[in-house]
């Protein structure tokens, strides 16, 4: 069984604010170690339960956070940017399932460091269904007919996953007290939970269906201000629909995914002076 893990950082236990997830900040190196540890816990359990190949894609920030020298020796790591498919780089039809680790809730929802791609995004929809990073990533997995088997992160992310992916196994390693505070499991307890839920996810794998679309995708992104929408709408095929919401009619989910990447990158060019 070949497994794919998309690994974000905000949903790792013990990481509660930007000091843990931003290079150069006070606790960033601790955050890197805890992130790497959680990948190792899941990978170890996966290999003990039928996994033959495990590929982890570093999916946070500049996507070079996981400490390769401290990684489980059998894990293959996709690290660095630019990645044409960002948080889902390297995924293809050869995988039996996907795992989302260290995930957070979507923008405008309560949860530890909740957001969607950039802090200028208020919300995102695919064919009228509100989604965040998790949703778009799950739809891209579905494009390849790959089910999401497990989501690990804060309790809000796990609740979002259960609504999006009926029957998915979740591993809530912390519970938000505010957007920058959480009730966290200790590393020892989070290891136990992650490994138990990984085993459960692999047992449950045959019951999970890929998340797919029956129609061509229409992507809508609502930005925080009009300047961001102006920049995003510069991408060919995109247009401002209403206020700060930009739409894009895509041929398929892969094109919608890359459109999201381009529009959010453009939106970050906005200045406020």
TrEMBL record:
The keyword Cell membrane appears for this protein: no
Coiled coil spans: none
EC number(s) given by UniProt: 3.4.11.-
A single GO molecular function term of this UniProt record: aminopeptidase activity
Keyword vocabulary terms for this entry: Aminopeptidase, Hydrolase, Protease
SUPFAM superfamilies membership: Dipeptide transport protein (SSF63992)
Enzyme class: hydrolase
InterPro entries per UniProt: DppA_N (IPR027476), Peptidase_M55 (IPR007035), Peptidase_M55_sf (IPR036177)
Listed name of the protein: D-amino peptidase
């Amino acid at each position: 069984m070949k497994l794919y893990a998309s690994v974000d950082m905000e949903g790792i236990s013990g990481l509660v604010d930007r000091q843990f997830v931003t290079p150069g900040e006070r606790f960033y190196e601790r955050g890197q170690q805890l992130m790497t540890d959680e990948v190792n816990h899941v990978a170890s359990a996966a290999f003990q339960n039928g996994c033959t190949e495990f590929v982890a894609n570093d999916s946070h920030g500049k996507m070079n956070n996981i400490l390769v020298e401290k990684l489980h020796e059998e894990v293959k790591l996709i690290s660095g940017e630019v990645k044409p498919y960002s948080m889902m780089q390297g995924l293809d039809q050869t995988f039996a399932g996907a795992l989302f680790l260290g995930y957070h809730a979507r923008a405008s929802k309560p949860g530890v460091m909740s957001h969607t791609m950039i802090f200028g995004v208020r919300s995102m929809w695919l064919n009228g269904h509100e989604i965040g990073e998790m949703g778009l990533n799950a739809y891209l997995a579905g494009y390849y007919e790959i089910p999401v088997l497990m989501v690990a992160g804060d309790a809000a992310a796990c609740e979002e996953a259960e609504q999006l992916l009926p029957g998915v196994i979740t591993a809530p390693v912390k519970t938000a007290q505010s957007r920058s505070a959480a009730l966290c499991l200790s590393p020892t307890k989070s290891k136990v939970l992650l490994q138990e839920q990984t085993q459960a996810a692999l047992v449950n794998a045959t019951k999970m269906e890929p998340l797919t679309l029956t129609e061509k995708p229409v992507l809508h992104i609502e930005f925080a201000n009009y300047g961001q929408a102006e920049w995003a709408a510069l991408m060919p095929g995109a247009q401002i629909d209403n206020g700060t919401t930009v739409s894009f009619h895509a041929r398929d989910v892969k094109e919608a995914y890359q459109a999201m990447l381009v529009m959010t990158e453009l939106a970050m060019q906005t200045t406020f002076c």
